Structures are given as C-alpha cells and as structure tokens.
Amino acid sequence: MAAIALLRRAITQKILNAARNYSSNPLQHIDPVQAQKAFKMWKTLSLTVVPVALTLGFLNVYLNEHEEEPPEFIPYEHLRIRTKSFPWGDGQHSFFHNSRVNPLPTGYEN
What we know:
- By secondary structure, the protein is mainly α.
- It contains two helices and no strands.
- The termini are far apart.
C-alpha cells in the first residue's frame, strides 16, 4: 500500500513539474552564448540557402515550362456535375479554372 502511495506521489510530482515548466518563462534556461550562435546560424542559412533554393525552384519551373496537349477528354458522368451554376462568370467555370488543364462538362475549351 505504501509503495502505491509513493508511486502516485512521484507521478503527481512529475506532472506538476511539467505543468510548471510550461507556464514559466521559456527563455530563462537559454544560455546567451548559445542563443547568439543559433541566431548567427539561422541568419546565415536564411541569407544563403533560401535564395539558392528559390532560384533553383524558379529555374525548374522556367526550364520545364512547355505547351503540352491536354489528355483526351472522356465524358464520365460522375465528374463535372453541375446541379447549380457557379455564382460568377457564365456559371460553368470554377473559381480557379485553367482552360488548358480543366475541362468543362462538354470538353476542353480549345
């Protein structure tokens, strides 16, 4: 019986200590030297890695951009059902409609 009480008290203390840590100031345990090193690391990464990643992403899109024929239109009955017109335009084009990729219920526009 005493062992169960000790175990219960230990578990309760762990839970209370965890709750206290969440409600305390999270910056009180950070070493200023480590914080400065982390700041320099993230500054360096954001000034070097991010522009390179953005440039590579831009080049990937730019170099792979070419006109492709859309896939053959197959008028499946369960796709592109219009029970009610869209509230903009002619009512057939979705809000993010792309005429090269998104067909209307009757087929591609061009």
